[in-house]
Design brief:
319 residues; alpha/beta; Rossmann fold; Histone, subunit A; 2 domains; 6-stranded parallel β-sheet
């Protein structure tokens, strides 16, 4: 009987391009597509939403026509897209890619999606709007630090992993406890579903070696987004009438700040400053994920040698 390890070695490879925001992941994935037959699969929780193009850093229409991305523009901003849905969709896309003789290339910065894909899922309760409103009311009154303090009381392990400036994960972890009476950590241990993937995942990290370089790119990219029409993009979302800042889509970095600017809560300069700071905080959280990621291959600044390294991986990984 084949062991789990030998069964894994018999699976074809999939390339996972990870890294902080503004590091150059998308361009690297396009460069990979120029060198071997592949299917690009989006792993960005904001890029799944239609009508959110500029602020999420999606490839432009021409680029997407030449390099189609699966799992991009698959949800309306009023809808929720869960990590479990992502995992099911990603497995389906990987399987279809392999069936056509292509190598799946998963690219994005939503580290939770990569983790869920790698490790599987525990059975979790569905989101509860009433409980979420209670948590958001606490955050509005006392700040997300207070939510973090509450989480620390009931689930210290999750509180250690989740930064006080990560409201979405904080909210979910505390919500799970309030709904089940059990910590997120305990539920993962009790109900963990083993990963069953059609291929082996090879994790690569694209990131500048100097933090200052990344910070400059973040600032320059946000200003470029403004020049490309980000304010107008967010204005169109506000005018729909069915969206608000409590929704997952509108919590995306940049969108929340521009929304508040359009509502008169921030000046133009404050909007820019808060957007850049929030993006830097996002990048910091992403880098924290990467530091603890097992079997991660750091590529630094992507170049031709980085592409060649991926080609070597594919040559040696072929079953």
């Amino acid at each position: 009987m084949a062991t789990q390890a030998s069964e894994s070695r018999e699976k074809p490879p999939a390339i996972c391009v990870m890294g902080p925001t503004a590091a150059g992941k998308t361009q690297f994935a396009l460069d990979l597509s120029d060198r071997f037959s592949s299917t690009l699969i989006n792993v960005d929780s904001a890029q799944v939403y239609r009508g959110m193009d500029i602020g999420t850093g999606k490839p432009d229409v021409t680029t997407q026509r030449q390099y189609p991305h699966r799992l991009m523009d698959i949800r309306d901003p009023s809808e929720i897209y869960s990590a479990s849905e992502f995992r099911a969709d990603a497995i389906k896309e990987m399987s279809e890619s392999l069936a056509t003789g292509k190598t799946p290339v998963l690219v994005g910065g939503t580290m939770l999606y990569f983790k869920v894909l790698r490790d599987g899922l525990a059975a979790m309760p569905n989101a509860n709007p009433r409980v979420r409103e209670q948590i958001e009311a606490l955050a509005a009154e006392s700040g997300w630090e207070a939510v973090h303090a509450e989480l620390e009381k009931v689930d210290p392990e999750s509180a250690t992993r989740i930064h006080p400036n990560d409201p979405q994960r904080l909210q979910r972890a505390l919500e799970v406890f309030l709904l089940t009476g059990k910590s997120l950590t305990a539920l993962h241990r009790e109900n963990h579903t083993p990963a069953e993937l059609p291929c082996r995942l090879y994790f690569l990290a694209i990131q500048p070696t100097e933090r200052a370089v990344l910070h400059n790119r973040i600032s320059e990219r946000f200003r470029r987004m403004l020049s490309q029409g980000l304010v107008e993009e967010v204005r169109a979302l506000t005018e729909r009438g069915d969206l608000n800042l409590s929704m997952s889509s509108m919590k995306s970095v940049g969108y929340r700040q521009v929304w508040r600017y359009l509502a008169g809560e921030l000046t133009h300069n404050e909007m820019i400053e808060k957007s850049v700071v929030a993006t830097r905080q996002l990048a910091k959280r992403q880098l924290t994920w990467l530091r603890g990621w097992p079997a991660l291959r750091p590529l630094g600044e992507p170049d031709k040698n980085s592409v060649d390294e991926v080609l070597k991986i594919l040559e040696t990984a072929a079953p």
